[in-house]
Amino acid sequence: MNVHSTINKEVFVPHDERMLVAVEVWRRKRKRMSFLPAGPKGNYATFICLSVTNTRPHQLLITKVKKFGGVSSFTRRSQWTVEQLRQVNGINPNKDSPEFDLIFDNTVDQWVASSSAEKCIFVQILYHACQTYSEGKTGTLGKVGKRKSYVLPKQTEFINCQSKLTGDASTVNLVIYRCKAFLNRIKNVMVAKQRRTPGNQSMHRKYRSLQVFQKMNMALGERGERLTRAEDKTIELMHTAQQFADTAHKVTLTYRCFYNTQLFHMNFFLC
């Protein structure tokens, strides 16, 4: 079950409502007191949802839903009727952008959607839902009676929105934007996996470092054994040389003793 289905099941179905569209958003300008230091961003996700009641007369509602870190459920925070939504500002009518403003009777929210495609889907469905709701409301009021005077409900104003979001080819554009949104979600999943990869790379580096360390220990051990064998051979050669020196010294002494004996005998005979 995806996020939108979960929000609809947990937040709107229990209130006998049906969610039409939802978009994940962040504030463009954080609301905080000027005398407070800027702290870290809150650990929560915010969704702006459009829903309609199942009971007649139908009501079109805009709801702010949050999901806090460490909590698996979604929480309804604020809700407005479409009559309270005075204006939707698309910010840039010339190109796709994730920014948009929602201006209500008592507040102004400046949002940035998770992607341009997600924002365009939300604005497009919101626009056509407002048009359908307004037409249905007008038709219902017309049936009350021609004698009674009534005031037509004020429609939500859409400014700085691309014409393709409100044109006749909106269905085709909606399919295109849904494809873009799907590809964007796939990209986000890949990015999230890549962000988790450094931890795996760190473990891989640690494993490789351990392997290198083991290989170094083995190489040092082998080199130590070779050095020990060379030292043993050196000591053996030293003993052999010493024995050769001792033997040579004995031979020299023997030869010198023999030479002195021969010299003595020669001198004896000469005398």
Automatic annotation (TrEMBL):
Signal peptide residue numbers: none
GO MF annotation terms: phosphatidylinositol-4,5-bisphosphate binding
Domain of life: Eukaryota
One Gene Ontology cellular component: exocyst
Protein species of origin: Echeneis naucrates (Live sharksucker)
InterPro entries (alphabetical): Sec3-PIP2_bind
Matching Gene3D superfamilies: 1.20.5.110, 2.30.29.90
Gene Ontology terms: biological process: exocytosis; Golgi to plasma membrane transport
Designated name of the protein: Syntaxin binding protein 6 (amisyn), like
The Exocyst complex component Sec3 PIP2-binding N-terminal domain, residue ranges: 41-133
